[in-house]
Amino acid sequence: VQLQASGGGLVQPGKSLRLSCAASGSSFSISFMGWYRQAPGKQRELVASISSSGDTTYVDSVKGRFTISRDNGKKTIYLQMNSLKPEDTAVYYCNLLSTRNSRYWGQGTQVTVSS
Fold it and tell me: Do the strands 9-11 and 109-113 form a parallel or antiparallel pair, or are they unpaired?
C-alpha cells in the first residue's frame, strides 16, 4: 500500500488549506484513514480520522475548523483546514489502517502558518 499526500504549503493565519491523501496498491481494505501531525519538538498526534463507515474523530484543538472527508471510489481522504493558526504548523502525515490491522504512512507534507 502506498499513500501519496499533497496540499501542504505556507499560508497566513486565518486562511485555509486542503490536504489530500490517495491510497494505492492491491488487495487491501481500509478500516480507518487519518491525518497525524508532528511539530518540532513535539510528539506526533492524531488530528482527524475517518472510518470505513464514515465516522469521524478530531483532536479538540481543531474541532470546528478542520473537516476530514473521503472519496471511497478514489481511496482518497481530504483534510479541509480553515481558520489556520500558527500552532497548526507541523508536518502532516497520512495514515491508513487496513482491515488486516496493518498500518501504513504517507511521506508527510509541511504546513506552515505564518504571517
Answer: parallel
Q: What is the pLDDT of residue 64?
A: 97
Ranges of residues in the chain with a pLDDT under 70 are none
Integer Cα distance of 104 and 30 in angstroms: 11
Amino acid making up residue 104: Y
pLDDT at 82: 98
How much is the pLDDT for 28?
A: 80
φ, ψ at 60 (rounded to 5°): -55, -35
Question: Strand 76-81's sheet: what is its strand order?
Answer: 2-6, 17-24, 76-81, 66-71
Would you tell me how many other CB atoms lie within 10 Å of the CB of residue 82?
A: 14
Whether 93 and 35 have beta carbons less than 8 Å apart is answered as yes
Q: What is the DSSP letter of 13?
A: T
On whether the CB atoms of residues 92 and 37 are closer than 8 A, the answer is: yes
Q: Which three cell numbers stand for residue 114?
A: 505564518
